[in-house]
Amino acid sequence: MQQGKSFTPEEIKTIGSMPMNFVLGKERSGTTLLQLMLNAHSNIIAPPESRFIILLYFRYRNTRTWTEKVISNLCSDLFREGLFRNFWGIDKRELQSILMASKDVLNFPLVCKIVFRLSSPQKQEAHLFFDKNPLYYYFLPELNMLFPEAKYIHLVRDYRANLVSHRRVFTVKKGTDIAYRWMKVNMLIEEAKKQSPEKYFTLTYESLVTNPAGRSEEICAFLNLPYDLNMVENHQSGMYSSFNSNTNKGFLKVHQNVFKPINPKHINDWEEKLSPEELTSIEAVAGKFGEATYGYKPKGSVEMKQKKQSVSLMMDLKYRTIKALYHTALANSWLYYKIKQYVWRNF
Q1: Would the pTM of this model clear 0.85, i.e. be above it?
Q2: What gap in Å lies between CA 339 and CA 330, rounded to an integer?
Q3: Is the pLDDT reported for residue 9 higher than 90?
């Protein structure tokens, strides 16, 4: 497809047949690095993070008749989402024109795929799409309903390193809260795996950065794609131009490491940055699950190993509140944007 032109019916059919896939993982687990590695593959389109699929899902999932007004409203809703508007580089009028030209065959999953295809018009050999959004672990039933063909790469990072990474970027007072949320969201994903284990590929962040070539080969085999050396030798080639030109201090603080070569030397930095007391407390919360499920062995005191998992009612309430709030807010976009504007811009 050339810019300014519409997709042909054959191209629309091809786009509709391209699988949508997802990277899942707790925030600060290396999902952006994995996304860039995937996007460096010549057969994969993995655009910058945007939550538009779920933000628009609740309004447009059942749309059957795609009139000019409906398409105009969808495009307005789509470009309201800041991550999409600022990082995807798609022309709103061009998108609206393409959707109008294909309105008789549209459905919401196809609309999403057309948007993804437009994000990388230069990738003529692309066979599939990837969306990376950590919070999508809350919406796995919705994603399965929209994209029954989807596969999921589940990236897990040691909960102790995850806490230290959170603290580098955000204000975190209680490490036990982060450890508990790490455990609960990974439990959500593990439960989903039981329904369709063949659709999931699980890897740890530690194994990815220690053996990027080997793990990338396994990922490609899972996706039925040939291995692309570019994923490891030049993962920065998957970097979006909107990333390279971004000089915002907050953005650079969050994503500074993805601009660097893949390096495993910091994976155990948490051992020096967590006090013995805090290490004992967070291992008491997530240690049993982390070791049994992913092999993360506790390193705390002997007392910790004899201590039962301790979860306060307040810790669980915080997690349940956050989970419910995301479900409520993303189903009511006006509330979502109000929260981002007036309460918590990182929501």
Answers
A1: yes
A2: 11
A3: yes
